[in-house]
Write a structure and sequence with these properties.
Elements lengths: L2 H10 L1 H14 L7 H13 L3 E3 L9 E6 L4 E6 L30 H20 L6 E6 L8 H7 L8 E8 L3 E3 L2 E2 L1 E10 L15 H15 L8 E8 L11 E10 L2 H22 L2 E10 L6 H13 L7 H11 L16 H10 L20 E2 L5 H5 L4 E7 L10 H6 L3 H23 L1 H14 L18
Parallel strand pairs: 3-4, 3-5, 5-13, 7-12
Antiparallel strand pairs: 1-2, 2-4, 6-13, 8-10, 8-11, 9-10
Helix pairs in contact: 1-4, 1-13, 2-3, 2-4, 4-13, 6-7, 8-13
Length: 476
């Protein structure tokens, strides 16, 4: 079909989409608490004629909107949860919370979900017009930040019947996401001891805080003996109390254990578990654990990545007003950044040279170009629940510019930029790229079969879900 018709549909829905994005930005709801955001999406999906399914996999804020009939079944993934402590006034270049201690869209998920919805609407209208055939499904995926919502959905069989899944993420570059990333498992360690007067009768106390600190020391020694692609992070959820003259009877730690894949993450977790047991034994305290979530490593699909790249290049890039460029340049001065943008520039000399020239050696305020796609074994030490989807169906994703170059992730700067015309332009660009790519998958069966053939090889060992069968999502 003429892809320009898809682009025209996205532009015709621009006011609807930007208004929705701004509403999701305002709601700034934490993981599994996105009830207002969910209601806003569901209303538009119904208004646009999608077949809506709520409470996917028993999750109140997970949903889907489908349109069409028969194969191929193409899924487009959306997210909408926010982050705590990142409240920020929009469109300004200084840190100024709207609500002190409030939440904010510090990863651009207000843009992420809405662009995916815009693409689904464009494809839906093309199916209605008889220009495309198949089924497009928009997935509302909650809790990416706080509990890996897609992992819970994948565990329960969602996405398995899809022929392919596409997604994107807001960022500071227009680039294909390739290679893989780390699997992760997040666990809470709860130590329980016996309270006592720290001076009067310390011999009667058993310190849970001591146990937690000894666990941390033990894990520090473990770091020397971990695979280079593994990592461990922790935080104190409970340090027992504020009184130093009390033997603290409770303590909680949250650990995130990452590995190159789920198998390695699980193996490392066993070693961390043993250290926790040892700390409890040394302090004569009790230790229990509670898994919070987990994510899988991502399987790259070069066929779909090339498809996305072709459409990144085919869709006209946004152009910016002088006011938008000035805003971006001023916002960039509020943070320190080093190095070139993009996740693959360090390992490919030709790409690195291209990016250095285009970005003024990393000093440009806006990366208004597309980074060349080169299939890569790049390993991202971070984690994403998109990885779980990629083990069930061919999956690919890209980033599009919605904030200034080098803007730090999960920052007030991203929140500020997320409700500006600068970000809206990147969001609409991403919607067009997704819609064009779905169109290709629906009109070129040989392309889809190549993607699935690659998937059958790369996912041959099968999906090893990183969460237990009975685990429920954590709210907040």
């Amino acid at each position: 079909m003429d892809k320009n018709k898809l682009f025209e549909t996205v532009e015709s829905k621009a006011d609807l989409l930007t208004a929705l994005s701004d509403r999701i930005w305002e709601y700034a709801e934490l993981s599994m608490m996105e009830h207002k955001s969910t209601a806003a999406y569901l209303q538009i999906l119904r208004d646009e004629g999608f077949d809506v399914t709520e409470n996917l996999c028993g999750i109140e804020t997970a949903f889907s909107g489908a349109f069409g009939s028969g194969r191929p079944y193409i899924g487009i993934l959306g997210e909408y949860d926010a982050l705590s402590g990142l409240s920020q006034e929009p469109g300004i270049t200084e840190q100024r919370p709207l609500i002190e201690g409030g939440c904010g869209q510090g990863c651009g998920h207000n843009l992420l979900g809405v662009a995916s919805l815009g693409a689904a609407i464009a494809v839906k209208q093309a199916i209605e017009a008889g220009e495309l055939s198949g089924t497009v499904i928009f997935y509302g995926c909650p809790g990416e930040e706080g509990c890996a919502g897609k992992t819970f959905m994948a565990r329960d069989g969602m996405f398995r019947d899809l022929d392919a899944a596409l997604c994107w993420h807001p960022g500071d570059v227009n680039e294909i996401s390739t290679g893989s990333n780390a699997a992760s498992i997040q666990v809470e360690y709860i130590f329980t001891g016996i309270a006592a007067h720290a001076a009067g009768n310390p011999q009667h106390g058993r310190s849970a805080l001591d146990a937690a600190e000894l666990m941390n020391v033990g894990v520090q020694f473990l770091r020397e003996h971990m695979d280079p692609k593994c990592s461990v992070h922790y935080s104190f959820a409970d340090a027992g109390g504020l009184s130093p003259n009390v033997v603290q009877p409770t303590a909680k730690l949250i650990y995130m254990v990452r590995g190159e894949n789920v198998r390695k993450a699980k193996a490392l977790l066993k070693r961390v578990d043993n250290i926790a047991r040892g700390a409890a034994l040394m302090t004569e305290t009790e230790m229990t654990t509670r898994q919070i979530d987990g994510t899988s490593s991502t399987i790259s699909n070069e066929v779909l990545e090339q498809l996305l790249y072709d459409n990144l290049c085919a869709v006209p890039l946004p152009t910016y007003t002088q006011r938008e460029l000035t805003y971006a340049a001023t916002l960039k001065t509020t943070y320190h950044t080093e190095g070139l943008p993009g996740n693959r520039t360090a390992e490919n000399r030709q790409v690195r040279s291209f990016v250095a020239e285009k970005s003024d050696n990393g000093n440009a305020a806006v990366n208004d170009f597309i980074i060349p796609y080169v299939p890569s074994n790049y390993f991202n030490p971070g984690s994403s629940d998109v990885g779980d989807v990629s083990w069930l169906t061919p999956t690919a994703q890209f980033t599009a510019v919605t904030w200034p170059s080098g803007c730090p992730g999960h920052s007030w700067q991203i929140v500020s930029a997320g409700r500006t015309s600068f970000a809206h332009k990147g969001m609409l660009y991403a919607a067009k790229v997704l819609a064009a790519s779905v169109s290709d998958l629906m009109t070129k069966p040989e392309l889809l079969e190549k993607a699935r053939a690659e998937f059958r090889i790369s996912a041959a060992e099968g999906y090893d879900c990183p969460i237990s069968k009975d685990l429920l999502p954590t709210i907040g």
